[in-house]
Amino acid sequence: MKVLLTKDVYKLGRAGDVKxxxxxxxxxxxxxxxxxxxxxxxxxxxxxxxxxxxxxxxxVLNHELSGVAEILSNLxxxxxxxxxxxxxxxxxxxxAMIAEAxxxxxxxxxxxxxxxxxxxxxxxxxxxxxxxxxxxIPQVKVIVHREGEVVSLAQAAEPEAAEPETIQTGSTxxxxxxxxxPAEATETEAETA
Length: 193
Fold this sequence. Notes:
Elements: E1 2-5, E2 18-20, H1 23-30, E3 36-38, H2 41-45, H3 47-73, E4 76-81, E5 88-93, H4 95-106, E6 115-116, E7 120-122, E8 124-130, E9 139-146, H5 153-157, E10 166-168, H6 173-192
Parallel strand pairs: 4-9
Antiparallel strand pairs: 1-2, 1-3, 5-7, 6-8, 8-9, 8-10
């Protein structure tokens, strides 16, 4: 099914774009939510008008939210959590928890659906993307540390890595297993000799 987007849709396109989508996605979500209309010849004639209006609205919204984006990009959040020896949490840090912490620390109200990540289940430092608009996506630094540990200012102030996805600390289970295998192999060799 071909549809003409009437509003910006995250991970699909901008208003005024013609996109081919699955029938169910278009019929059950995009059209009822008024995010798109069927790409008929009449709708295609309005495409340029829709695109122009959307660009104007997007520019105004980006200008209004640029101050909020600057506040959020300078924000660092620390979450104490119970974790096992491997660094795996006994729970998780959810988008709702992060949205609540952002509101408490900066006063900016963020919907949990604007946060672009899966719940955090390991200790470490993470860069969490917040979708304010389709063009404006600041990142908040989140540090998940063991309960009782004190997060040093040096760790909180260290610059983000080039790869913004996830920066994990501690060893993984595979690394620990590889470290144990040679020790077991030498023990069995000594027993057979």
